[in-house]
Amino acid sequence: MRLQDEPDIPAQINIVPMIDVIFAILTFFIMSTLFLTRSEGLPVNLPKAATAKQQQVPSKITITVNEQGVVSLNKKQVAVDDLTQQVRSLIGSNSEMLVIINADEKVGHGQVVAVMDRVREVPGAKLAIATQRR
Question: Which of 8, 47, 93, 113 could make a disulfide contact with 105, Cβ separation 3.0–4.6 Å?
Fold first, then answer.
């Protein structure tokens, strides 16, 4: 039996625990996406370009020129003179392949041009230079 003096208490839904769970899930997804970057070459400080855009090509070769001028082909050190032959062997029968040059911003212009010149000697090789967006 209820007393007449006792008012009805309306039912309430407490959403604070739900908000806590949502923020925990959001934090998890934000932190996990930070580790999803794929590095194709060796780590170098790429130059910045305002007009940079991402290329979507399934098959690619990465040439890296680090700050000391050491050239690497798919993370394996190689001499500039051997670059043409090794890129040609990697392309093989593939009619077109994108060759991405990751050159450190402190590398001399002549070194990058020498690498580009060697790659241009290979038929079917398309050149791209990696940059970072400003």
Answer: 47
Name the burial class of residue 69, with classes exposed (0-12), middle (13-18) and buried (19+) by CB atoms within 10 angstroms of its CB: middle
State how far the Cα of 62 lies from the Cα of 92, in Å rounded to an integer. Answer: 16
Ordered structural domains, the chain, with CATH:
48-133 (3.30.420)
In this structure, what token pair is assigned to residue 58? 């399934």
Collapsed DSSP state (helix, strand, coil) of residue 66: coil
Beta bridge partners of 129: 101
pLDDT digits (tens, 9 = 90+) for 86-132: 888 888 776 677 888 888 888 888 888 888 888 888 887 888 888 77
Check whether 40 has a pLDDT greater than 60. no
- Helix residue ranges per DSSP H, 1-134: 16-34, 83-91, 109-120
